[in-house]
Design brief:
InterPro entries: Thiolase (IPR002155), Thiolase-like (IPR016039), Thiolase_C (IPR020617), Thiolase_CS (IPR020613), Thiolase_N (IPR020616). By secondary structure, the protein is α+β, with helices and mostly antiparallel strands. The protein is built from 13 helices and 12 strands. The longest helix has 20 residues.
Amino acid sequence: MTMAEAYIVQAVRTAGGRRKGALADWHPADLGGEVLNAVVDRSGIDPASVEDVILGCVTQAGEQGFAFARNAVLSSRLPISVPAVTVDRQCGSSQQCVQFAAQAVMSGTQDVVIAAGAESMTRVPMFTNISYHEREGVGVGPFSDRIKQRFGVENFSQFQGAEMLAAKYGFDRDTLDRFALESHRRAAAATDAGVFREQIVPLAVAGGIHDKDEGIRYDATLESIGSVKLLTEGGVISAANASQICDGASAALVVSERALKDHGLTPLARIVNLTVTAGDPIIMLEEPIGATRKALARAGMSIDDIDLYEVNEAFAPVPLAWTKALGADPSKLNVTGGAIALGHPLGATGTKLMTTLIHNLRARGGRYGLQAVCEGGGIANVTIVEAL
């Protein structure tokens, strides 16, 4: 039996906002509502035809708590008849939303689904959702004694995982800092050339319109990056060669072939492969390598068949290890910069990267793109798309 196809007909994102920066006054539900409006408006589809909204968010507390995805719908111009659900697959949350949306379409159970993500890391800081036990003296946090005993740790740290990854693949600080500098240079060049203009949803902010990523350091040098304090004494990871805290939202409209015809839609991309895997929760950030191998095998492809890669720059060792292990071409990797320069708005990053990947493929005449994201707990999502 031939599997039905899933298509992406619109993909948008906000420009990233720095911590306590341009988007600090935006409630995260409103950020989500804006990108939902944008994918509907830009596609021209009847808002009432949207059958579900699947929205990623990592820190589901405070303004991002209480059915956050539904609140984004209520903040949007979508009719109240549109349901919504919030997904937490850590940094890959909204990439998983794309995959869930595609699975719904490919199974024939739905025809029009929005995958999205929103995160205000300014207004709802990281770990807000897991600090209750520390404030109230209740419980032991998310890791039970059984889990701690099984793995011989008190906590699973992505910072430690990044250091372990750098050591395993032989990356010193200079290598990581040079990669970080290149991320800023590529992002700055892309911004200056107007590459992001088509994919960004402009937002009104104090002082004007926010339509450019705020975290790009146009004056970055190897010396300035190298002067930033290391996160661990004797380590190689600093805030300058890791992803930036970021506020933002993003969304993709995923539809069936039937919806293309019924609504007169023109697809941007076809979804080729959906993969999620899990591995070692301690080093954790290495998992995109195995997930990519599985995705390529299932798709009957090799890494050389892929024209562009978006591998999330959670920490510089992640894309560097991925490239080294897979023999990938560095010139195809994060060609317009990554999270080190553009920010990593946690639950919004998946559809943010998908938006950039699809637009870059189409602009450069590429055919296949691959997106890979490392996630807390040793999970990784990989999605392959074909630009149309």
